[in-house]
Amino acid sequence: MTELAAMEFHPQPQAGEPKVWAFPAPERGTLDNGLTLLRCHRPGQQVVAVEVLLDAPLDAEPAGLDGVATIMARAFSEGTDKHSAEEFAAELERCGATLDAHADHPGVRLSLEVPASRLAKALGLLADALRAPAFADSEVERLVRNRLDEIPHELANPSRRAAKELSRELFPVDSRMSRPRQGTEETVENIDSAAVRGFYEKHVRPATATAVVVGDLTGIDLDALLGDTLGSWTGSTGRPRPVPPVTADDTGRVVIVDRPGAVQTQLLIGRIGADRHARVWPAQVLGTYCLGGTLTSRLDRVLREEKGYTYGVRSFGQVLRSAPDGSGAAMLAISGSVDTPNTGPALDDLWKVLRTLAGGGLTDAERDVAVQNLVGVAPLKYETAAAVASTLADQVEQHLPDDYQATLYQQLAATGTVEATAAVVNAFPVDRLVTILVGDAAAIKEPVEALGIGEVKVVTAE
To answer: What is the mean pLDDT of residues 134-142?
Structure first.
């Protein structure tokens, strides 16, 4: 019998020493036209990300023109004084760039991504869009029609419909936050090119704007490049708008948006709470993640794994508007969907989870998993220039210091189980939650009333 030749194996790779990581710190400056600049050199990131923040918040929209900020944001890429809409799109495509824009409560944001080798060309196009947007009648009319077409689809989406109802319930009727961010049919159909240009001329200027540039800047004279592009954008001086306080009514109650025959019920349970300026924010983030941030969270373990009511339930905190004086707020919410017959039992168990947290607290194991998921994977989360630029822009938008994100990860790692428990219990008090249910009222109203979690009312779906 012939002996088999001995097999030779390559040495097994060994893990290297972990590198110390921190969220990158930007370099801050100001262009001659007053534009605030944050730059961050990220070696190896050959796709450069640029974020431009405009101080044009939704509460600055004129009465009856909700949605004009959104139409303006979309119209920035629909032609300039140098290029028609088609030419502008073609020029972006030639340099491999993408340009997106959206409006939210804090303001309007434009997001550009482009290969570093084409940065000069793309910044020129971005500067043209900000400096001299065309706002042509035909293009604005098309954007308005597109937005009007979107609204019925949003109302047909249970999660979007629930979000709309929660905003209407939580905030005063005269608050912009009580109304859809992108406007309603009644307000959007009033928007024309004159309204868009009027909003632009009143609120868009470099003196109150900020640009964030992140990527591999090796060999790029960014100062000269910005001077020739965004530096050519001029406008009147202006002061940042005051940030009005956020007020809300979180009296415990239930609103059912009736969808006869629906086989599922969409749940959205929320209130407002502390924003990122509050000392409790790190503990609130950690506790909320333990409650419903992942597949291993308390809510998923009970409602999905043990009871089979749902494919998943999530809890989260989303900053609505932020201010250093404490007048800002975040939306604290729990969302998911359950089958119609189990709507009552699912809500009952959800409230039991919240009561159990108040009585027994989180475990050290839950806290440790949350820290690992939030802090341990942060270096992967910020592998791209776009992710870094977006977070830096968030910090600017929310009036936070440039080292905020780096400090937050240190605080999360140092937060104990007791602190996280107290924060999540305070964030989701069982008697101060507004519950929105989009589903079949005839099937779910009676079992929900029997839970005693608040007065129940039924509204008709649009």
So the answer is: 97
> Does the global pTM surpass 0.90?
yes
Bridge partner residues of 460 (DSSP)? 258
Residue that is last in its domain, among 199, 232, 265: 232
Under 8 Å between Cβ of 318 and 461: no
Q: Is the dihedral of CA 144, 150, 152, 158 positive or negative?
A: negative
pLDDT digits (tens, 9 = 90+) for 164-204: 999 999 999 999 999 999 999 999 999 999 999 999 999 99
State the total domains in the chain: 2
- 261 CB neighbour count, 10 Å cutoff: 9
* CATH number of the domain enclosing 164: 3.30.830.10
Both structure tokens of 107: 């303001």
Domain end call among 171, 197, 232: 232
Same-domain check for residues 260 and 369 = yes
Is residue 47 domain-shared with residue 189, that is, in the same domain?
A: yes
Q: What angle do CA 275, 277, 278 make, to 5 degrees?
A: 75
Examine the domain organization and report whether 216 and 324 are in the same domain.
Answer: no
Residue 87, in any domain of the structure: yes
Domain containing residue 320: 253-460
Distance from chain centroid for Cα 416: 27
Contact 196, 72 (CB under 8 A): yes
Torsion of CA 194, 199, 200, 203, to 10 degrees: 160
State the chain's mean pLDDT as an integer: 94
Q: Give the residue among 182, 223, 230, 224 at the shortest CA–CA distance from 209.
A: 230
- Residue 327 and residue 224 share a domain: no
Whether 223 and 258 map to the same domain: the answer is no
pLDDT of residue 143: 98
